[in-house]
Amino acid sequence: MVRAGRDDMTIADLGPLNRAREQRAWYFTDWAASAFQTTVAGVLFAPYLISVAENAVGEHGRLHVLGLSIAPGSLPSYVITVSTLLSALIFPVVGALADRTARKPDLLVGLSWVGAVAAGLLFFMSGDNWLFGSIAFMVANLAGGAAIVVSDSILPLISTEAERDRTSSVGWAYGYAGGGLLLAINFAVVTFHEALGLDKEMAVRLSLLSAAIWWAAFMIIPWRGIRKHPPVAVEDVGGGLLSRSFGQLAATLKDLRNYPVALTFLLAYLFFNDGIQTVIASASTFGIEELGFAEGTVLGTYLLVQFVAMFGAIGFGRAAARYGAKKVILSGLVGWMGIVTVALVVPDGQLVPFLVLGVAIGVVLGGTQALARSYFSLFIPRGKEAEYFSLYHAMDRGTSWFGTLTFGVVYQLTDSYRPAIFALIAFFVLGGLLLLRVDTERGIRDAGNVRPAVI
User: Fold this and answer.
1) Fold designation for 22-447
2) Quick one: 149 exposed, middle or buried, by C-beta within 10 A (0-12, 13-18, 19+)?
3) pLDDT tens digits, residue range 39-68?
4) Which of 149, 244, 368, 374 could form a disulfide with 332 if both were Cys (CB 3.0 to 4.6 A apart)?
5) Nearest to 379 by CA among 259, 292, 270
């Protein structure tokens, strides 16, 4: 009996326990990176960059870059657009490299620290040096996006198909909690800067720096807590590490035509995520420049969005367990269509309607993004996670060039942010129509994955 008991213990399945431990460490990837996404990309960078650019050319002047005349108010949108074009070249190579190595945690933290250092350099953006700030932000945005490619590729390695929606949703909730906590601190710093003996510009610069430090420090947790998973299904290509990565990428792109459902979803995601990311990236500019709210008020509203989105992500994850991820994502896109429509007519300077709009954004924001990540993972063949997520993230996290370009051009033509933000409804409509064409059953079967009980 004793021997049998020892045998039972020897063959006990420790997989769920190990996965749970890694999942808890992985959640802190979102917790850490969201500090940059909220404090920097979401709230402070765009208005501060506009003010620095206006210091250089005047409120009604124009910046001249490579022969182009750019309004200071459009500069953040164009900075994100350039970052996206570069990401289309960088992310797939990072994905191919990640799929060929067991050292994904090392790659994840290395890219994150590069992004954090670049974000920290934003502290030195002052006076009229808008070009320095634009370049530093692009480096931080690119490195951060590449790190998230690696992070998301780890999701299928630490969770079963049935665990994906829950794991992804909890990760997003951690992100909103972490980003929201730091944002609350920075909200107090910016709002009460005089009591702290700071001028407003220094308060903003210190807040930008705090996001970089937060990002770098908390990435130690996933670095130490996620195991090194050996690569599988690696393409047999020769050369050095970089040339093998390009060879792996070429083989994957050639093979992608065998997964039409994954391609259809990527096309749908291209449109609806461009809309989501452009709303996120432009929200602070819309609130300050169009509706006339102070930066402190916008920071407070953004904090409210973070708080609501934390529960929205968990709620959408639970809804997906009952109704399936696809149906819940589609309902979220309907919500986004309503949001950009209301933004067209929301009154200037009226706080309550602005807060209601923020709550609505929070409800659908975390849920649609978290479920899109886990839903797409069902269509990825084993061993190709990072490469497929690199294509996914070429369109992700403030790197949406169709949306930001549309937003910037419409603003430049109309000199108003209202039609610029309403124009994004086309992205949600097109994305939703394409998502309706995604055959979930076939996509899971083609990828050779296990069908969850509810899809």
Assistant:
1) Growth Hormone; Chain: A; (1.20.1250)
2) buried
3) 898 778 988 999 898 887 776 678 777 777
4) 368
5) 259
